């Protein structure tokens, strides 16, 4: 559970912004979506390899 302590005299908008940043960094929603259905480990690995190949391809194109 995320806890945001509001400092004395701190604007509520600033506290909300800190909460949203922490929420995004913890990846709460991403984990919930991933756990909605089961993916086989081989499929996970295949996706990771494809993503790595894609990123490497982009970096190689930048070097050209």
UniProtKB/TrEMBL annotation:
A GO cellular component entry from the record: ribosome
Lineage: Bacteria, Pseudomonadati, Bacteroidota, Flavobacteriia, Flavobacteriales
Gene: rpsU
Family the UniProt entry places it in: Belongs to the bacterial ribosomal protein bS21 family.
Domain of life per record: Bacteria
Classification via HAMAP family: Ribosomal_bS21 (MF_00358)
InterPro entries in the cross-refs: Ribosomal_bS21 (IPR001911), Ribosomal_bS21_sf (IPR038380)
UniProt-recorded name of the protein: Small ribosomal subunit protein bS21
Pfam families the record matches: Ribosomal_S21
Record keywords: Ribonucleoprotein, Ribosomal protein
